[in-house]
Amino acid sequence: MVLQQIPARIRWAVEYMDVQPNDQVLEIGCGNGAAAEVICGKLETGKLFAIDRSESGVDRTKRRNAKYVEAGRLTVRQIDLATLRVPVKRLTKVFSFNVNLFWSRECADEVALLHERVVPGGSVFLFYEASRPELVPDMVRNASKALQEGGFRVSIIEQKQPPVIGIIGKR
Predict the structure, then answer these.
(1) CATH class label, 8-170
(2) Can you give the residue ranges of the Methyltransferase domain (predicted)?
């Protein structure tokens, strides 16, 4: 089996999240499973629940992270966040990378679901590749507004190399 490389932007974002061994994490848009691989590598008693609307994304994540699925540390489902009923009652962290939901359309219901499930002191981490600078102001403004209106305290981080913008919502 060919080892798949973890992109620097994903590695940086997951490191910034500071995943702890007992965290309960929801990943929105798991794609090829790269972030799930890094997150699960940091978990011991914690769990990652990863979702994607794409069947191929779910399949790729399951294949790439089969050892974590088998160990019970990772659950992967094909579902949209709007219809998700999170099996974990209390999430410590929510993670997404390049998921346009939070800045490109109305998402009050999705943010309300996250606010209901994230523990006090827990966080939502929305990361975006900032390689198209013309989109960054809309990403920051719209995602920040959605999180603030949903009851989160928002902060913004920016990483130059690799170019990543993060909108962090703290409950």
Answers:
(1) alpha beta
(2) 25-122
